[in-house]
């Protein structure tokens, strides 16, 4: 067993919960890319998994702060949803990931997510104006006789979540 010591990832409960967090982020991104839908089960699973993570690693105050951050992000994104600037699945997904970010990582999470969303939008815009624009057919909606491109923002949210996961993995190795 000593031979495998440096090759196997840590398999304690705290690490296993973080692996599941990363897996759910990837599933949400793939679903949003393929169908422009983030199933409700993913944000619910993220919230339940966060509870297990919190009970293992956080104080009650840190968990309450994370809940406050998630509620704030939910309220802000609900306004965007009301103006049809964000999808309902994205609102729920980003709020669930914000739980994991907590107070310490909320601003970096939002900044990384926003930056990833901007890069994604630029990539789609570049692709739309190129001969390969036909690849974007799944992301085109017609309203009022005009074409509108929809952005699979779940991909950007997942990227921000991976940033948070990386920070959480680092905090486990330090402690």
List the helices and strands and how they pair.
Layout: H1 13-35, H2 41-57, H3 60-82, H4 88-128, E1 140-143, E2 146-149, H5 154-174
Antiparallel strand pairs: 1-2
Helix pairs in contact: 1-2, 1-5, 2-4, 3-4, 4-5
Architecture overview:
It is a single chain. By secondary structure, the protein is mainly α. The chain has one domain (9-174). 71% of the residues lie in helices and 5% in strands. It contains five helices and two strands; from the N terminus they run H-H-H-H-E-E-H. The chain has helices at 13-35, 41-57, 60-82, 88-128, 154-174, and strands at residues 140-143, 146-149. It has a two-stranded antiparallel ribbon. Strand 1 (140-143) and strand 2 (146-149) form a beta hairpin. Helix 1 (13-35) runs antiparallel to helix 5, helix 3 packs across helix 4 and helix 4 packs across helix 5 (154-174). The longest helix is centred in the middle third of the chain and has 41 residues, at 88-128. The model has no long low-confidence stretch (mean pLDDT 89).
């Amino acid at each position: 067993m000593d031979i495998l010591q440096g090759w196997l990832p840590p398999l304690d409960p705290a690490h296993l919960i973080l692996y599941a967090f990363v897996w759910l982020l990837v599933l949400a991104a793939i679903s949003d890319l393929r169908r422009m839908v983030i199933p409700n089960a993913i944000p619910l699973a993220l919230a339940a998994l966060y509870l297990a993570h919190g009970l293992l690693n956080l104080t009650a105050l840190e968990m309450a702060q994370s809940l406050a951050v998630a509620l704030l992000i939910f309220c802000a994104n609900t306004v965007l949803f009301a103006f049809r600037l964000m999808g309902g699945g994205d609102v729920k997904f980003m709020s669930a990931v914000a739980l994991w970010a907590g107070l310490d990582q909320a601003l970096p999470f939002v900044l990384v997510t926003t930056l990833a969303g901007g890069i994604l939008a630029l990539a789609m815009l570049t692709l739309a104006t190129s001969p390969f624009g036909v690849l974007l057919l799944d992301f085109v909606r017609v309203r009022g006789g005009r074409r509108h491109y929809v952005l699979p923002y779940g991909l950007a949210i997942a990227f921000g979540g991976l940033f948070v996961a990386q920070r959480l993995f680092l905090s486990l190795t330090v402690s």
